[in-house]
Amino acid sequence: MAVGGVVAIGLTTTGCPQLAGLVDPILVLIACAGIAPMAVGLARDGVRELLEASPDEALRGRIAAAVADGLGDALTPARASTLPPPTIRSTKLGQRLYVEVDFIVAKGEWQVDEEDAVRLAITERLDALGLLVWPTIELTTNPALAAD
């Protein structure tokens, strides 16, 4: 803005006042061009959140890491190896993060206290993401319950 003011004063003093009148509209166009990409990005992200789209790839990676770290904290390596890879679903709406983690396990293989330890460890790791996390962690023997 200061540079634009100096240019306008310079044009006025050099005998081109009609060009000095264009400085302000040109500055407005430059400001709009600078702000437009940010506004479009914010609108796109807002619509994605309202449509409950999956969070961005960086956050999905942090969620997967939190799940893996939580399993490492809750179980011995031998016991953790008996769990299949989880199905992880997530969506973010503002500062609220909804995460569903489903494990399909064999019947009679898991005790409720082990399941609780997995839930607590994963939830603790997800809480460290700095968002309001709404976690759902399930161990089920029925694949239909974990289907999309």
CATH-assigned fold name of the largest domain:
GMP Synthetase, Chain A, domain 3
How many helix segments?
Answer: 6
CATH superfamily of the largest domain: K homology (KH) domain
Order of helices and strands: HHHHHEEHE
What characterizes the major β-sheet?
3 strands, mixed
Helix-strand makeup class: alpha+beta
Helix content: 55-70%
Could you give the count of β-strands? 3
Q: What is the distance, rounded to the nearest whole angstrom, between the alpha carbons of the first and last residues?
A: 54 Å
Radius of gyration: 27 Å
- Could you say how many structural domains there are in total? 2
Average pLDDT confidence is 86
- Report strand %: 15-25%
Question: Which architecture of the largest domain per CATH?
Answer: 2-Layer Sandwich
CATH class assignment of the largest domain = Alpha Beta
Protein name: Cation efflux family protein
Please describe what this structure looks like.
By secondary structure, the protein is of the alpha+beta class. It has 2 domains: 2-50, no CATH class; 57-146, GMP Synthetase, Chain A, domain 3 (2-Layer Sandwich), CATH 3.30.300. Helices cover 55% and strands 17% of the residues. It has 6 helices and 3 strands; from the N terminus they run H-H-H-H-H-E-E-H-E. It has a 3-stranded mixed sheet. Helix 4 packs across helix 6. The radius of gyration is 27 Å and the shape is rod-shaped. It starts with a helix and ends in an 8-residue tail after the last strand.
Keywords for this structure?
148 residues; alpha+beta; 2 domains; rod-shaped; Cation efflux family protein
